[in-house]
Amino acid sequence: MTTPQAFKTIVDVRTIVPRERHPLIFGTFDGLLPGEALLLVNDHDPKPLFYQFQAESAGEFTWEYVEKGPEVWQVRIGKVGETDQRVVAKGCSH
Fold it and tell me: What are the residues facing 68 on neighbouring strands?
C-alpha cells in the first residue's frame, strides 16, 4: 500500500489540448498497478474528471486533493489495492 503522498507518475495536463486530457489521464490510470497512484496537475478544478471516474471506475479509484488552486490544482488519483479502504473521495466536498 502506498502512502497518500506517494505517486508513480505526474500527469501535467496544463499544456495538453483539452480534448486529449481525459484520454491521457485514463490511459495513465489504466497502466497503474493496484496501490499505485498518479499526480494530476491541472489549471482548473477537475470536478468533471472526478464525475467521469465515478461513472466509469466506481470503487476502483481514490481521489485526494493535494492543492486546490486558485491557479494550480493537484489531485492524487490512486488505483485501489486489496488492502486499501474503498474511499472514493477524500477532501472532495461534493
Answer: 73
Q: Where are the alpha helices (DSSP H) in the chain?
A: 18-30, 47-57
**pTM as predicted:** 0.82
Number of CB atoms found within 10 A of residue 20's CB: 10
Per the CB < 8 A criterion, the answer to whether 58 and 88 are in contact is yes
Residue 49 has pLDDT above 50, yes or no: yes
Written as one letter, the residue type at 51 is: Y
CA-CA distance, 66 to 57, in Å (whole number)?
21
Cβ neighbours, 10 Å, residue 79? 21
- Residue 43 corresponds to which cell in the numbers above? 489549471
Residue 92 falls in which region: left (phi positive, over 0), alpha (psi -120 to 50) or beta: beta
